[in-house]
Amino acid sequence: MLTHVGLDGYRDLALAARDGLLRLAAGVSAMDGLLVLGEPDSTLLAMAGSPEVDVFVVADELRARGFYAQVQLSLADVPPNLHFSAHAISPSTVDALLSALGDSVDATRARGPAVPADLAAVDLSTMNEQGFNRAARVRRPRLHGRDQRDPRPPARPGPRTGPPLFLSVLLTP
User: Fold this and answer.
1) How far is it, in rounded angstroms, from Cα 109 to Cα 54?
2) Which of 40, 97, 132, 170 is the most buried (most CB within 10 A)?
3) DSSP conformation class of 90
């Protein structure tokens, strides 16, 4: 890449990506129901939702609006969150992404958390093989008529932490 665009060109691309990410972080910080995790120091932004804004539902709503957010399960004291990566073209899409994100948060808040009844009461510390098999069969309904040809699986609701084998089966379509 350096050979093609040169050092100045590469620096311009990096600065554009960083500018886009900082604008996205500022927009997310201003939204009720979302929280930027940490202080972004590169081109990755992580955001979590408030108790009434389930980030798994936000990810599905964003996908229905043409944007992709990488879903992250909770780990230790880090809550479930969404990751966004910025690149040189990001500044041209930040406004549209923030608009879609705001609409997605509003839709998520209106729908409420998406935890199927079968999973709401799952206690992973006491789960036996029968309970594991039942929980692994739970499938989440598709969003309001989402295109059945979309090959990407929806983000799965339910337990955000647990034994790795349980989570890998539960979260694999």
Assistant:
1) 8
2) 97
3) G
Cα–Cα distance between 80 and 103 in angstroms, integer? 20
Would the pLDDT of 116 be above 50? yes
Cβ–Cβ < 8 Å for 61, 143: yes
43-76: b (≥16 Cβ within 10 Å) or e: bebbbbbeeebbbbbbbbbbbbeebebebbbeee
> What value does the mean pLDDT of the chain take?
78
pLDDT at 139 over 90: no
Here the tokens at position 146 are 């989402």
122-146 burial, b at 16+ Cβ within 10 Å, e below that, comes to: beeeebeeebbeebeebebeeeeee
Give me the CATH number covering residue 35: 3.90.1150.10
**Residue with token string 């990488």:** 70
| Stronger pLDDT, 94 or 128, i.e. the higher one | 94
19: number of Cβ within 10 Å = 15
Note down the domain range covering 42.
2-171
pTM (2 decimals)? 0.67
C-alpha 64/C-alpha 66 separation (Å) is: 6
What is the domain count for the chain?
1
Q: Residue 88: what residue type?
A: A
